[in-house]
Amino acid sequence: MIALVLGILVPVLLITLEPFDNSNDFSYKYLILSGYSLCIIIPIILIHPFENYVYNVQTKRWFIINEFFYITGTLLLIFLLSFLYHFFLISLQSSFTSEAVWGFIKSFGLPFIPIVVPLWLYLRSNYGAIEVPFYDKENSRSKKTVNHCWK
Prior knowledge:
Elements: H1 2-17, H2 29-34, H3 36-57, H4 64-90, H5 98-109, H6 113-127
Helix pairs in contact: 1-3, 1-6, 3-4, 4-5
């Protein structure tokens, strides 16, 4: 569900706000801009099994560093897939360089981070399935207290 929400949000922003001066009319404009939703949905869905694997290996725990690497890695895949979509299907070019990839990420990918990532983190924290283990009183050590005697 989170992938669908994010996948719908970015094309809606592109269509309604036209942040990159895509106001010029071209054939099938809305259909082409809607294709970016797949560039967001596919990486999130592809990384999800790996995320579950790491979560299970860590005895059903998820750390902040895991979240950082998950968001960063998924963003890189989203940027790369968006670049490929833009380069091959929209621009209809046949060869590219690493400078073209970085230029696309810098110009088109990075501006969406302040909008998408906070929403993404909010959705993950509120609607993600996180299991918090219960405290097992029987299997924990007994607490040792130190009694202070004052004379």
